[in-house]
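hey so i finaly got around to running the thing on Metallophosphoesterase from Nostoc flagelliforme FACHB-838. pasting the sequence first so u can double check i didnt mess up the copy paste, my clipboard has been acting weird all day
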Amino acid sequence: MKLKRRQFIFLSSVSAIGTGFLSWMLAHKNHQSADITNSITAIAANPAKKDLLLRFVSVADTGTGAKGQYAVAGAMNAYHKKNPYDLVVLAGDNIYNNGEIEKINAVFERPYQVLLKQGVKFQACLGNHDIRTANGEPQVKYAGFNMKGRYYTFKRNQVQFFALDTNSNADLKNQIPWLEKELSLSKAPWKVVFGHHPIYSSGHYGVNQTFIKTFTPLFQKYGVQLYINGHDHSYERTSAISGTTYLVTGAGAGTRPVGRSEWTEHSAEKLSFAAYEVYPDRIEVSAIATDNRIFDKGIIQLKSA
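ok and heres what it spat out for the 3d tokens, dont ask me to read them lol
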């Protein structure tokens, strides 16, 4: 059959449109398939943490109600969205300047309202500013700090925590025997102690020789793997010292300069908090700044020399 020129051009156009439409359909289908594949890949790249026993965070020297505290709280919220946790170790100086409990809404409940509404539990200890009002008793009684006393212990999964009163007026005569007894009775493979004051630090307050003599022999004897504190407004992680890693997380609202010592693994003058993922054989520590970036990562072994 002979086609006139106009008929040929028309049919050629229809054919081109059809071919183009078919190509678009195939490309669109391939694009959808690629999207699905990419989604599956993304899910596979973020699998559930195998053997994770507990995730928690720590922060200290927070209670200002000012911009720095809100910045760190925002980073804690962002981390919680991606890596849910339900425990915050709050290592003292919870209310500046003088531990006035009437400030609790401004310096605790409002800054951490997002976490509190999601059931995150804060476990606090007393700092030197906290004992300026009624020796800290209003804070000990405050339900939101979950304190069973000036020093106390609690368990989460295979981790046992021991909160200390490290203040200058602390009742060490009774607290030290209590700590030794609780450590000796503990069947938990992981033992974490926290208090406000540093034992090893390269910050303003430095090393506490009295606490080295008082506490570290017990840590070594009973296998305490981690001690967390504030007071120095900085971040610092030590190498294991006689089996214990010492971690300063006192930059929860403000910062001060910090140096380095022979046992320092990492130190930084950054508004930040620390996050911990506990596994049967290790704790993975991450230091997180207000830009939500991890600026230090470390491993604490279950048993280290």
